[in-house]
Every structure is written in structure tokens, then in C-alpha cells.
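== Fold encoding ==
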Amino acid sequence: MKFGYLPVDKTGANLLFQLLAKRYERNSTIVTSNQQFSKWGEVLSDSTLASAILDRLLHHSYVFNITGNSYRIKDKLQEKEENNNVL
């Protein structure tokens, strides 16, 4: 599940909580997000619900913070670099 690119309305936030609550300590869940945890309250429009969701997600979890250039534009950046080296 990708999370944080677009805001989630109240109904969507409640459904997300229900889904994660059912999966909590029963199933593995992978979530990717372009938002810091501190911004989830804004994305979900409810900081209390965001805290409850994060509580369930982060308990027993591994967090991987990935930084760097976008993978989608790597070919364009490489092409530009190669063109600059030719001159």
C-alpha cells in the first residue's frame, strides 16, 4: 500500500484503521509513504486516528528510510550526465 501521496478523507482513514487493526499481530503488512510519520495526521485529517494507525503499524516493525534521487528519473539523469561528458 502506498500512503501519503494524496490526502485521505475521514471515511478512508477509518477504513484504513479497521484494516490495520484486523491485520495487527496476525498478518504482515508493507506500507510505503512519501510522508514523515509526523505528517500523517495532516494526510488523514485526524491526528488521533493517525496515532492509533501508527501505533499498530510501528509495533513489531522494521522501518527503512530510503533517500536519494527518484528511481523513475534515473535514466534521464544518467543520459544527461553522459551527454555532458561527450562535450
